[in-house]
Amino acid sequence: MLNRILQLSNELDGSIFLFGARQTGKSTILRQQFPNSIYIDLLDSNIRSRFSRRPVLLYESLKDKAEGTLVVIDEIPEVPVLLNEVHRLIVESGLVFILCGSSARKLKRKGHNTLGGRALPVYLYPLVSAEIPDFDIDHAVMYGMLPTHYLAKNPSRHLAAYIDVYLKEEIKEEALVRNLGAFQRFLEVAALTSGEIVNNNNIAQECGVSATTVSAYFDILEDTLVGHRIPAYIKVMKRRVVQAPRFYYFDVGIVNHLLHRKVLVRGSAEYGHAFEHLVMQEIIAWQHYSHSEEKLSYWRTYTGIEVDAVIGEARVAIEIKSAEEILPRHLKGLKTFGEEYPQSRRIIVSLDIINRKMGEIECIHVKDFFKMLWSEGI
Questions:
Q1: Is 178 helix (H, G, I), strand (E, B) or coil?
Q2: CB atoms within 10 A of CB 326
Q3: What count of other Cβ atoms lies within 10 Å of the Cβ of residue 215?
């Protein structure tokens, strides 16, 4: 059994929504961390059918419970009308709810009760390195960090099934897009540009849709927690900088599957892209789990000099390289960033096993960087 970084008991200052992409382990963490709660699983067809026909059953079954009683409702978007009864139970009986679902999009799109601030959102991400004994960096780079994929004997089959389920359940059944074929093509093109600067016009040409539609597709991926757009750091100093966001899928294994990457070999460009993606998804998870109020961004000049991640107001700059030996040429982006923001802490994360400082730049092996993130932060 894996121990997750996210401890929901620390988040329970009242009721919460627990959101996370499919198969991030939401149901597992709820059952592990709250074994004595009242647990209502709306994936059970009989329970879902009864509550759908008569939502007031929830109120009738819980109204006499003691104040502070914890109730977990798994997959609340399956019967969103129950939120009216949840609202009433919070106000009248003082019950505490954990309401679980893949995203808030279904609730917002159909105008359902989102409890008017009485339940705060909490997000569960794929596994992070600190949750995995004997963490294997190459395995993670290839198959990603979704629990069912990282731990599977045959991750490739699970990845293929995941894409099919996502398309069927999140897109087709919810009628989020009219042209499923165009959206499927968009998923592949988005994978090609994962980690790159978003250009809606170029992607629109590839998919045969409008740039406005592409923007809406990216919104869907973000709203369903399947992707992240990372904004550019645009505080202007001496150099003119790019202002368009970068996009990352929420898990590198999804990208590898969409791009038909069967084998990733250290030293190849494909491995380098996947390695960067893995490090970025770990940083994204750390930022949210640590409740950091600092913005995560990237920095790139119009001449192509860039830094992969910027924390806060240029407090920390991080460059990610899959090289097994860091050389002076790998430091160009961080050196240039340092000329603009000399007070920043600058880190290059890589596969180089010798941690050291090269001038003002810290060279840190990826596993040591991950340990630093989860022990002391950056």
A1: coil
A2: 22
A3: 13
CA 334 to chain centre: 26
- DSSP, res 131: G
**Amino acid letter, 315:** R
Element (H, E) at 59: helix 56-62
The residues, any chain, with a CB within 8 Å of residue 72's CB and separated by 6 or more, are 30, 34, 37, 38, 39, 40, 97, 98, 100
β-sheet bridge partners, residue 349: 320, 364
Q: What is the pLDDT of residues 268-318, one digit of tens each?
A: 999 999 999 999 999 999 999 999 999 999 999 988 899 999 999 999 999
Rounded alpha-carbon distances, angstroms, from residue 178 to 173, 183, 213: 11, 9, 11
343 by Cβ neighbours in 10 Å (0-12 / 13-18 / 19+) ranks as exposed
Best CA proximity match to 276, nearest among 361, 377, 378, 194: 194
Tokens, residue 231: 């904004």
Name residues whose C-beta falls within 8 Å of residue 20's C-beta, 6 or more positions apart in sequence. Answer: 26, 102, 123, 124, 125, 225
Joined tokens for residue 251: 């898990």
Rounded to 10 degrees, the C-alpha dihedral 24/249/251/345 comes to: -110
**Residue in this structure with the two tokens 């190459």, named with its chain if needed:** 138
Give 50-80 pLDDT, tens digit per residue. 999 999 999 999 999 999 999 999 999 889 9
Residue 172 DSSP one-character state: I
Instruction: Give the β-pairing of 316-320 and 306-311.
Output: antiparallel
Determine the Cα–Cα distance for residues 331 and 325; give it in Å rounded to an integer. Answer: 12
Q: Which two tokens stand for residue 87?
A: 């609202």
Element (H, E) at 349: strand 345-350
Write down the residue that tokens 């010798």 correspond to. 354
Radius of gyration of the chain from its Cα atoms, rounded to whole angstroms: 22
Q: Is 207 exposed, middle or buried (0-12, 13-18, 19+ CB in 10 A)?
A: buried
Strands (E), 236-339: 246-249, 296-300, 306-311, 316-320
This prediction has a pTM of 0.92
